[in-house]
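Lab notes, practical 5.
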Amino acid sequence: MNLKLKKFLAGLVVIAVLFGWYITVFGIGPVGNIKEVMKFGLDINGGVYVVMEADTDATGSELADLMDQTRAVLNNRVNAMGISEATVSLEGEKRLRVELPGVDDPEEAIEQIGRTAKLRFLLADGTEVLSGTDIKKAGIDTDPTHGGYLVTLEFTSEGTEKFTEATTKASAGEVTSAIDGVSDNAIVIMLDDEIVTAPTCSEPIYQSTCTITTPNGGYAQEDASNTAALINGGALPLDLHEVESSVQTATIGTDALDKSIIAGLIGLAIIFILMIAMYNILGFMADIALLLYVVIVLWIMAGLGSVLTLPGIAGIILSIGMAVDANVIIFARIREEIAAGKTIRVAVAQGFKRAVVTVLDAQITTLIASVVLYEIGSTSVKGFALTLMIGIIVSIFTAVFVTQLLMGFVANSRTFAKNKYFGINEDGTQKVFVKKQFGFMNMRKFTYCLSAGILILGIIFAGVRGFNYGIDFTGGTMLQIDMGQKVSTDDVVDALGEFDLDPSVVLAGEDENQVIIKTIEALDNEERAEVISVLGDKFGITEEDVLASEQFGPSVGDELKMNAVKSVLIAAVGMLIYVGIRFKSWKYGVTSIMGVVHDALVVLAFYAIFGITINNPFIAGILTVVGYSINDTIVIFDRIRENRQLYKKQPLGQTIDMSINQTLNRSIMTSLTTLIVMVPMTIMVSTSIREFVIPLMVGVVVGTYSSIFLCSPLLYEISKNEGVSKYVASTKKNGKKKEK
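Output from the prediction step:
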């Protein structure tokens, strides 16, 4: 590629960055800014979701057919309720997830969609005359006679005949009511054993349509819509029970969104400054690529119609820190080539060539963890996994293609193609965090003991005190309520005494005028309403003051625990296979997976020792730690593999020490940038995000530690006798025994 073309393409990249950020922030013409275009999850926009499980012994294709039919019926119900962007989706084999964004009365919405809805039309004496299958559709219209609204019904041909016969009997006075409060000439419409409405008829109806109204001003529009929606819903093929639900107000979500954006921008700004300080013009080029990276990720998500959740935002911010890693690997290689005496142009070309394999290996192993997370995780965790996957793919593109293009342009510049602009000191050495060379293999026995000590301590805490499982693992209920004033937690506990909940009550909010109530009892919709009613009597609150509520059945927690173990095992096997193939040796794969298991166990020990809540994002956290850990290990192993080919006569321990020292500054820089983007999130955003981010920060530190102090020494342990005859190996072994 000639210089003019490089200049032209580099200019296009800069224009794309500026134009992309302008549209992202301000929008242009018919295209709104990213906040207007992006779809946000219920945890941001507010609304309700409920997960319902089918009570059935059906399996295989029979179960799949029944679940599809049930999903179709629930779709009809939520569509009839007029809720925009409501979704009904299968979750696993026997569960359905219904999401209702922006619902004003979430408790009523849950009640509406959760009904088993066996629809029947009865005469007043209890005789069934029609069923839900005899109804084509129900709707609403204005009532010109009484005012307000009326409900319209349309029958099938068979239903028309049945309805004519029923209204003939009812209007002729042939029926005596056996239902309290129902007139003799009524047609009773029932869902299960509950009366939806019981309109009367004064004469036979022969048409295939009829209307239902009230003589006292007609229905209110909401009542008419709900009645029509229930009739339209028809009968569910399966009985369902609520196993999980969540209600969020837009107030909490919007506040968390704004804080997340600010936290992300702060982290991004710090990274930009740090990259320029360490890498000079290289860092500036990386900053341009990162700006393009953020724009591409956001607009890909918007273009795919992906729903952005708070964990998803955390995923984007985390992926920014990890995207820096690809650039750091490349820059480290370029500076090594410059320090070796090569010209800037040759160093850039050779640095990219040598670094690209490492970049791909490191990112693909992390991608494996993300794919597993997406396949196994719950809906909220999938949002995190999707953004992480998109981020990894885009980071490869921006680092390998965009950064390379920009660096190729700079390398040919008379002004900037100088050592001082590439982070090289006047004496020809690289600008680094650590200059000293360490003998890591000599430390291995100490670090083995340190890791063992942490794990043993974690086992002791887990055995004596146990893990602090959240309600999504144990089953239970959480309510967050705006009390309007600071109240005593003891008073709240006393008010709930009649329910035998053994609740945990803590204050929340900036002025501590909110309470968060948690109990391991999984309260259904009706029971939650009773709790709110009791609190209302004492503190004057209403359902509108409930900012958020969550409910998880015990079966959900068991499934989450199983998924956590399953996801780590599947990811580990996938990584083992990939590393084994790429490095053409099982030893690299086995030692890297030993590091992965170590890091997962250390994070578990961290949860146990400090009593951090293990909740739904735990799976995302542990798998991210796994992906990050092996990412770091792959970079070091790649350098070990390269150096073993270059220095075949050098003792293995020296080769491994040299390789770790060569990549040490890259490890520190990557860990630092990843931690930097998470610190503002930890300080500024909600407790739920904080519980997710803090273990990730621990995982980053542990992942870096294990790559250097555990995986590399373990590789030495199982490889040190390579190429040594059995006689020499046994002689060395026996010699050590004699020395003892």
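Observations recorded by the TA: The CA atoms of residues 217 and 530 lie 32 Å apart. Confidence is low (pLDDT under 50) at residues 725-729.
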